[in-house]
Each structure stands twice: as structure tokens, then as C-alpha cells.
TrEMBL record:
<keyword id="KW-0028">Amino-acid biosynthesis</keyword>
<dbReference type="InterPro" id="IPR029058">
    <property type="entry name" value="AB_hydrolase_fold"/>
</dbReference>
<feature type="site" description="Important for acyl-CoA specificity">
    <location>
        <position position="321"/>
    </location>
</feature>
<keyword id="KW-0012">Acyltransferase</keyword>
<dbReference type="GO" id="GO:0009092">
    <property type="term" value="P:homoserine metabolic process"/>
</dbReference>
<feature type="active site">
    <location>
        <position position="319"/>
    </location>
</feature>
<feature type="binding site">
    <location>
        <position position="224"/>
    </location>
    <ligand>
        <name>substrate</name>
    </ligand>
</feature>
<feature type="binding site">
    <location>
        <position position="353"/>
    </location>
    <ligand>
        <name>substrate</name>
    </ligand>
</feature>
<protein>
    <recommendedName>
        <fullName>Homoserine O-succinyltransferase</fullName>
        <ecNumber>2.3.1.46</ecNumber>
    </recommendedName>
</protein>
<dbReference type="InterPro" id="IPR000073">
    <property type="entry name" value="AB_hydrolase_1"/>
</dbReference>
<keyword id="KW-0808">Transferase</keyword>
<feature type="active site" description="Nucleophile">
    <location>
        <position position="154"/>
    </location>
</feature>
<comment type="pathway">
    <text>Amino-acid biosynthesis; L-methionine biosynthesis via de novo pathway; O-succinyl-L-homoserine from L-homoserine: step 1/1.</text>
</comment>
<dbReference type="Pfam" id="PF00561">
    <property type="entry name" value="Abhydrolase_1"/>
</dbReference>
<dbReference type="GO" id="GO:0005737">
    <property type="term" value="C:cytoplasm"/>
</dbReference>
<feature type="active site">
    <location>
        <position position="352"/>
    </location>
</feature>
<feature type="domain" description="AB hydrolase-1">
    <location>
        <begin position="48"/>
        <end position="356"/>
    </location>
</feature>
Length: 375
């Protein structure tokens, strides 16, 4: 049964940006493609446009379903739609697959026109700043001069934050959810272990596995399993799985015995059919590199000096990967610059995945803030 508040059937759109893009790494793309979706109606003065930025394994498909895939519900469908916290009766919502992704935008699995082969490992490293630049080009293509808000959770929240830094006059509100102004050493360590699982897979072939008609499934599977462990809280794991055994007894072997093992292996196997390993490497590197204070000798206050947007910053009590302390760092730096910011620290049992959950209080906070945005 379809959600009566769903945006309904949606269709991806494609744009070719025929403009040279100089990446932060120094590499250059002479042109690139982006895939995106829109929900709602752009008003006459184009003041109700809103951008949603996706997290590591997300994409442009934020809400609704595809006509030929009725179970293909968007990853934030519980948040976006008519009458929902991000109300498509009020806002024109845009979701875009980031450059370097694997769901239609130009990335490692795309064909490099110069060689006629997949980019593979030759696709350049991309950063959050690069993504913001490409999103700004998409906005220009759509005739949008300013976003009412830029919103994201996790890596998406970092993009929302970067928007307010790079284009202070082009975004009125930033919603930064379950994010951080930079990764901790522990987070960088988790990302490196995930990358090493992929890089050392015998089927990785230096990133050119496309030419060998294979995939580094084992490495990507392990990377995703590790990721899932960090996205969940100890409480949510205990509640869902505890120490439950699949067959009710020990088998005294190394195959699946505990339900949590079965869950992780299932998630890992499923992911290998949905995501490109080279894109996973790129996304985790973008996470590692994000640090707006770096250009200011580590001074986040100085980094936020030019910001003009108002903010809603949200964190979750059991999110140990992007802890509330990291969100409070952002809030403090914003307040030190006399920037208008609202902060919510939400009690939740779901760990980092809390920003995706259908939590009534969380959704009420977002909806209350969005209701006060003028368009």
C-alpha cells in the first residue's frame, strides 16, 4: 500500500555540464554528467528550492518510487513528501548523485571519452568542496540563484555546512544532521580499514576490475560489514539480535552461528550488487579530507566568519561515530560568530542510523524549523 503522503512515482533526470571543473586535488574534468531528481513545484520567483545532500552510500533517489520498481522507495522517503517534515507542497526539493558516485553521475565506472575505457582508478579523488561546486552548477542549470535550505545527514551534513562556507549568499538555511566539522582519528581509522579490505581484494586489479569482468566482492562486502557495525549502537544491536543463535546451539565452527553475523553478511552481500567499490573508496576519502578549519590553522571560528545562513544542527545520543560533542563543536563556532543556530540533541537508540529513522520527536523538530522558513 503506497504512502498517501508519498511524492509518488518519480523519474531521474540527467544533465551534462560542459564546463571545465578543476578539483581540489588539482585534477581537471573537462565535462561531467549529474543525475538528479526533483519533488514538488518550483515557485515563480524560484525561492522555494531546497537541496538534499546524500551520505556515503546514498544517491539522488531521496523520495518516491520508480514506476517499474514499486519497492524502490527513496532513502529519505519518511522525511520528504506532501505534509512531511520537508514538505513538497511548500518546497521544490532536489536530490543529486554526487560526482564520483555509481548511480548515474560521472564516476569510476563511467567511460572516459579519452580512452574509451572505464575511468576506474584513474578517476580523480573528489572532495566535499568539489561536490558543492558541481551542485552549484546544477543549480545554475535549473535557474536557481539561492537555496531556501541545504540539508543533509552524516556526509550530507558536511556538504550542507560547506555550502554555507563556499556560497554564503546562495543558501539561507543549513540543516546539519548527525555530522561533524572533521572526522576523529578513530573515524579515519575505520575508513582506512574499509579501504584496505577493498584494495587488497585479489579481484580489485588496481581499480581496473571492469576490464576483467569481475568485482572485488569480498573487499566491498567486508567494508560494508564494518560500516554497519559503526552505524548501529550497542543497544540497537542488543535489542535486534542479542546473542541469539540461528539454530539454537553452537556449531563449533566458523560459519554463521549468531543472528548478528547473519545480518552483517546479508547486508554486505546485498551491497556488493548495489555499489561500486571505486566509488566507495572515493566517498570515504572525501569524508577523511573534510576539515574547513584546516585552512585557518585549525580555527573553526575563523572558518565560519563569512557564513550568513541560519542553522538547525541535530545530533543523536547513541551516535558514537558522529557524536553529539562533534555537533556541539559546530554550534559553538557558529554562536561565536553570532550566527543564528538552533540545536537539538535527540535521545535515540539507533546510533548513527538515527537520522534515517522514523522518529516522531526528531521529525517534529525538523518540521517546526522548516515551517518557519519563508519562501
Amino acid at each position: 500500500m503506497q504512502d498517501s503522503n508519498s511524492v509518488g512515482i518519480v523519474t531521474p533526470q540527467y544533465v551534462h555540464i560542459d564546463k571545465t571543473l578543476k578539483l581540489k586535488s588539482g585534477s581537471v574534468l573537462t565535462s561531467y554528467n549529474l543525475v538528479y531528481e526533483t519533488y514538488g513545484t518550483l515557485n515563480a520567483d524560484r525561492s522555494n528550492a531546497l537541496l538534499i545532500c546524500h551520505a556515503l552510500s546514498g544517491n539522488h533517489h531521496v523520495a518516491g518510487v520508480y514506476a517499474d520498481k514499486p519497492k524502490s522507495t527513496g532513502w529519505w522517503d519518511n522525511m520528504v513528501g506532501p505534509g512531511k517534515p520537508i514538505d513538497t507542497n511548500k518546497f521544490f526539493v532536489i536530490g543529486v548523485n554526487n560526482l564520483g558516485g555509481c548511480h548515474g553521475s560521472t564516476g569510476p565506472a563511467s567511460i572516459d571519452a579519452r580512452t574509451g575505457k572505464h575511468y576506474g582508478a584513474n578517476f580523480p579523488i573528489v572532495t566535499v568542496e568539489d561536490w558543492v561546486e558541481t551542485q552549484a552548477q546544477l543549480a545554475e542549470h535549473l535557474g536557481i540563484q539561492q537555496f531556501a535550505a541545504v540539508i543533509g545527514g552524516s556526509l550530507g551534513g558536511m556538504q550542507a555546512l560547506q555550502w554555507t562556507l563556499d556560497y554564503p549568499d546562495k543558501v539561507r538555511h543549513g540543516l546539519v544532521i548527525a555530522a561533524a566539522a572533521k572526522l576523529t582519528a578513530q573515524n579515519i581509522a575505520f575508513n582506512d580499514v574499509a579501504r584496505q579490505a577493498i584494495l587488497t581484494d585479489q579481484d580489485f586489479y588496481g581499480g581496473d576490475y571492469y576490464s576483467y569482468n569481475t568485482l572485488p566482492r569480498r573487499g566491498l562486502r567486508l567494508a560494508r560489514m564494518l560500516g554497519h557495525i559503526t552505524y548501529l549502537s550497542d543497544h540497537s544491536m542488543a535489542t535486534k539480535f542479542g546473542r541469539d543463535l540461528r539454530d539454537g546451539k553452537f556449531s563449533f565452527g566458523y560459519d554463521v552461528e549468531f543472528e548478528i553475523e547473519s545480518y552483517l553478511r546479508y547486508q554486505g552481500d546485498k551491497f556488493t550488487d548495489l555499489f561500486d567499490a571505486n566509488s566507495y573508496l572515493l566517498m570515504t576519502k572525501a569524508l577523511d579530507y573534510f576539515d574547513p578549519a584546516n585552512a585557518y590553522d585549525g580555527d573553526l571560528n575563523a572558518a565560519f566568519k563569512a557564513v550568513k545562513a541560519s542553522f538547525l544542527v541535530l545530533s543523536f545520543t547513541t551516535d558514537w561515530r558522529f557524536s553529539p560533542e562533534r555537533s556541539r563543536d559546530i554550534v559553538k563556532a557558529l554562536l561565536n560568530n553570532n550566527i543564528n543556530v538552533s540545536y537539538g540533541e535527540i535521545t535515540s537508540a539507533h546510533g548513527h542510523d538515527s537520522f534515517l529513522m522514523n522518529d516522531a520527536y526528531y521529525h517534529q523538530l525538523v518540521q517546526a524549523y522548516m515551517n518557519n522558513i519563508e519562501v
